[in-house]
Write a structure and sequence with these properties.
The complex is a heterodimer. Chain A is an alpha+beta fold. Chain A contains six helices and eleven strands. In chain B, α1 packs across α2 and α11 packs parallel to α12. The chains are: A alpha+beta, B alpha+beta. Chains A and B meet through β1, α1, β9, β10 and α4 of A and β7, β8, α8, β11 and α10 of B.
Chain lengths: ~350, ~475
């Protein structure tokens, strides 16, 4: 008989990594027409980082996402980057990108100030315009200023910057210190059906509420969460590398190493928790890894809720779940007899 | 039949090569497709302000049209194909490697062994991993020799002709066994525990003494693989100026370049790494694998050399997620407040350190959970075993410890007859809470996330 259960799990996760410094650098070049090019040493690995970094540069320059072309991942052409690791790209490379864009923008402001008859610190960049703060009617198209800067004034608007999260080394005795600049938080709730005759677990629904600071691109945040959940389901129920007695893997292929497919995916409902981190670019933190963190815990708690057994080792295969259900049943009559 | 084919190969190498080329090789370049070159850009990409927009990805269009060029889609004139011979034994001394027969095969252009690598070691923190095993095999997936040939099939056949003589050595596979004094040492003379981490806060003895209930539990997790869609793939091209260009599926090109420079003993400015678009990483592509091997094969042959891992190599020869044995002991008050927690973690580090130190640190710091705990003692160890190396994988130990601390939390809630949501709200971090390492936390929204998820799920609604 199928028994329904629900389980909750929350988590915290740091942005960036410890052990050593993890800086990123970026270069932003504003072209003569007000579009821009961002150079970054990070790598697009499917997560959408280049889109996010482009949006961050665009935001700082007051232009649109499509106005920024991102060049990435070529050590001959792009600046150093600690890499697409540790959920650090939006926060660390994002901060470097914002700072580089700001530097390029300040060159535009210097050039625009006499054109607008104000001081550079009275100027802002918005909606593809360079305009006077609090008096947006006085404005110039960003392309006009950029062209003037490069062609007339001889000041090409290029900015380079780097960012490294502020940390405090851990005391080797007590582990006290500030290993990471910031953390994100999340909760996932799983609803499952457990067949108490076969031990099979079906994940029906997962509700995920994740904090990522400002969501630079909510669609990509949702994509990360859905992908992380699929990885979490595999970790909870299916995936396991097995070894023989001689230390050789016995299932190194996708036939015998079972991973979730689209057929295993539950309904997923995503909430982005409102949050703003003043140390991140436009309040953003990150989201990549945390999405895969609480899923297994939530599913295992749901199994316990459904059939009353605690599986203490992953994955919770049907064999393991069924054995636990049988062991529990075997114990029950004794208890009645003793009581 | 197989023997007959091999005999024929010796007699008529050219015909065999042609046959291999025509019948076995897939075209290296995707056939052309017709698609509009005038791009329709969705309105959302033109809107300002840019932040907060559900902007579509510029690479999405290329993926959708099948026009993204992954490494395996790239081909350069005269390009060779590389394959690496895997040890297949978990712990052994290499007595000899005889490559003569492979080198004599038609179509084989070069063979490389570990002794030819200028600096045959690498690693993100400890440099304990050989690029190709030369003297000692530490796990069954170790590479022992590499071949560059005109086709993948010839390269594969050449691997079989390489004769390696091994002297078996004692091995250890269980991390708890490996911690014992009399266990075989994976990297002798060093002990098997290669990194430890301790976090101490408050006074756990007092905390446990003040507790109304004490709960204990042991949790274990398994080894898993990242399994990205695109396997590790590399093309190396050594040019006449002595510069090497490496197209590779690396998530960290800056570190990769430094590692390649070190192993090849070259100045960093003679190396170019291009990562293009990588088809999934999840932590498995954060360090070099075959890049130095391919670079040296390219240097030997003067030709571009491509290597694409098989799915089996993805499993046996790249990093995996750390299995962790996690012991929890928690003291709580009658109403469910956590007063003391002791955690002991043993991470199965596999044959090499890789990103274990980072994983150890994160697992240790995060293992107490997002909870206010004044009295805490966490100790974590990572140990060598003669198994596939464990390294960076999405979450760096966090999914493992979250499974433990959240399972433990529900067991405590059940024993105290508390709602799992309520016990979490009671203990969760708040703005300004100190972390286990004493850091004052900011922008803390763990309670918001709990309440928001519970609201959407309908946690407090009556159950049918």
């Amino acid at each position: 008989m199928k028994r329904r259960g629900r389980g909750i799990a929350c988590m915290w996760y740091p942005i960036g990594f410890t052990v050593s410094a993890n800086p990123s650098a970026a270069v932003v070049k504003i072209n003569e027409d007000g579009t821009a090019t961002l150079l970054t040493g990070t790598v697009e690995t499917g997560q959408g980082s280049l889109t996010i970094l482009g949006q961050i540069a665009a935001e700082e320059l007051g232009i649109a996402t499509d106005d920024v072309h991102v060049v990435s991942a070529d050590t001959d052409a792009t600046p150093m980057d600690t890499g697409a690791i540790a959920s650090r790209t939006t926060y660390v490379t994002g901060n470097a990108t914002r700072l580089a864009a700001e530097k390029a923008k300040l060159i535009l402001f210097e050039v625009a100030a006499p054109m607008l008859g104000v001081k550079p610190d009275q100027i802002e960049a918005r909606d593809r315009k360079i305009q006077v703060k609090g008096y947006p009617q006085r404005n110039l198209a960003i392309g006009e200023v950029a062209n003037h800067a490069q062609v007339v004034m001889g000041q090409p608007p290029i900015g380079a910057a780097s960012f490294n999260p502020a940390t405090v080394a851990l005391d080797p005795e007590t582990g006290q210190g500030k290993p990471f600049s910031t953390y994100v938080y999340a909760t996932q709730i799983a609803e499952v059906d457990v067949d108490d005759e076969t031990g099979e677990v079906e994940v029906l629904r997962i509700v995920a509420a994740h904090d990522c600071g400002t969501a630079i691109n909510p669609m990509l945040v949702e994509g990360q969460i859905e992908g992380g959940i699929s990885m979490g389901i595999g970790f909870a129920l299916q995936e396991e590398i097995l070894f023989d007695d001689a230390g050789r893997q016995i299932n190194p292929n996708l036939t015998n190493y079972i991973m979730p497919t689209s057929l295993d995916m539950p309904e997923i409902e995503v909430d982005i928790v409102k949050s703003f981190d003043p140390t991140g670019p436009f309040g953003a933190k990150g989201v990549g890894e945390p999405t895969a963190v609480p899923t297994a815990a939530a599913i295992l708690n749901a199994i316990r809720d459904a059939v009353g057994v605690r599986i203490t080792s992953l994955p919770a295969t049907p064999e393991k779940v069924l054995a636990a259900i049988k062991a529990k049943r075997a114990q029950q009559p004794k208890r009645i007899a003793a009581g | 039949m197989a023997t007959k084919t091999k005999v024929a190969a010796k007699r008529a190498p050219l015909e065999t090569l042609r046959e291999a080329d025509e019948t076995l090789r897939l075209p290296a370049i995707t056939p052309p497709v017709t698609y509009p070159l005038e791009t329709l850009v969705p309105e959302v990409r033109h809107q300002t302000p840019a932040v907060g927009q559900r902007a579509t990805r510029p690479d999405g269009r290329l993926h959708g049209l099948g026009q993204t060029r992954y490494i395996d889609d790239l081909a350069f004139p005269g390009m060779l194909y590389a394959k690496i011979k895997r040890a297949g034994v978990a712990s052994a001394r290499i007595r000899s490697i005889d490559t003569r027969e492979a080198e004599a095969m038609p179509g084989v252009m070069a063979v490389l062994t570990g002794r030819e690598i200028p600096v045959n070691s690498f690693g993100p923190s400890l440099k304990d991993q050989p690029v190709l095993a030369d003297d000692r095999v530490f796990h069954a997936g170790d590479g022992v020799a590499a071949v560059a040939a005109v086709t993948e099939q010839i390269a594969l056949e050449a691997l079989d002709r390489i004769k390696v003589e091994y002297e078996p050595l004692p091995a250890v596979f269980d991390p708890l066994e490996a911690m014992k004094d009399d266990a075989p040492k994976v990297h002798a003379p060093n002990g098997n525990i290669y990194a430890t981490k301790v976090i101490r806060k408050g006074d756990i003895d007092k905390g446990f003494a003040a507790s109304d209930h004490i709960f204990e539990g042991r949790f274990r997790t398994q080894m898993v693989e990242h399994a990205p869609l695109e396997p590790h793939a590399t093309i190396a091209m050594w040019d006449p100026n002595g510069r090497v260009t490496i197209h590779s599926t690396l998530g960290r090109i800056t570190l990769g370049r430094a590692d390649v420079a070190r192993t090849l003993k070259l100045p960093i400015n003679r190396i170019r790494i291009v990562a293009t678009i990588v088809g999934g990483n999840f932590g498995g592509k954060n360090e070099i694998t075959q890049e130095p091997v391919l670079a040296l094969l390219s240097k030997k042959t003067g030709r571009p050399v491509k290597g694409t891992f098989t799915r089996t190599e993805e499993f046996i020869a790249t990093t995996t997620r750390h299995p962790i044995i996690m012991d929890y002991k928690t003291g709580v008050s009658k109403d469910g407040r956590i007063l003391a927690r002791k955690v002991r973690l043993v991470l199965d580090g596999g044959a090499y350190c890789s990103w274990s130190e980072t994983t150890l640190g994160k697992a240790c710091i995060l293992s107490a959970g997002p909870y206010k705990i004044d009295n805490l003692h966490t100790e974590a160890y990572v140990v060598y075993t003669n198994k596939t190396m464990t390294g960076a994988m999405r979450g760096f130990g966090a999914p493992q410890v979250c499974f433990a601390y959240e399972s433990h939390m529900d067991d405590i809630a059940a024993a105290l007859n508390l709602d799992p949501l309520d016990i979490r709200l009671l203990n969760a971090f708040e703005e300004g809470s100190p972390s286990p390492t004493g850091q004052v936390l900011h922008s803390v929204v763990v309670k918001d996330s709990l309440l928001q998820a519970a609201q959407r799920f309908g946690w407090k609604e009556p159950r049918s």
